[in-house]
Amino acid sequence: MASQLSRSVERNATPKEKSEWTEEEEEEEEEEKEFKECVEEPNGSLTPVIDDSLESNELEKQKLAIMRAFVEGEDSSAKDVDDFMLRRFLRARDLDIEKASAMFLKYLSWRRSAIPDGFISVSELSTNLAHNKLFMQGVDKKGHPIVVGFGNRHKQGNLEEFIRFVIFALDKICSRIPRGQEKFVCIGDLQGWGYSNSDIRGYRAALSILQDYYPERLGKLYIVHVPYIFMTAWKMVYPFIDKKTKNKISFVEDKKLNSTLLDDIDESQLPDAYGGKLSLVPIQDC
User: Where is the stretch described as Disordered (predicted)?
Assistant: First the structure.
């Protein structure tokens, strides 16, 4: 596989590899592609005008074509996947076709095994849904849907059900991402979090699913109302967070919470739990 892909890349190489860019340049370039302008709604809020074309630099397009040809040859179900999904896997591996292809093929195999029926029913998630811990509402200034999770409502329990809850939630979130967008933002609220809420196995399982099977979906994670005791759990989870995900996590001080959220989210789109206008909607009702 390595030699086959290497020859293809060499034939299509260009002078400047995207891997030479700084992380800041890559983030800015991706964000610029997500929307071109905003229009003002009657209520004064700004709604992004989404450009849903698959814009990429030439090198990325060439590598995407090579990757598609390879994965379709390995697994025919890859033909049902659009270029946006393949590009997320490619970008998650810094445009390394071999690594991205392996990651994507692993995803297809995992999906068939983890969700043989193609979906997860709410009837399978009674305990986790009863916690009433995950919600969606509104979009940020870039059009990313907003997810809110309350850490003090999570209770450690059956790991397999929690894993299915995570998959159910991520599928639901992704289905609500507007056409032309690819990411969501999340507010992780830890007010009232205590040791009874600590679930290292669950945290690590959720992190693995997000990073390995839903790459480049998280736009930003705001962790708010953080109690000091949470840092004990954080130290055990942090080593398992990849570099790209770490760069998207922001711990927000209580005194800066309002200003930080309003920098990125219009008041009309901010959940009412944080002084905005919108009521939170449970994830299963979205």
Answer: 1-47
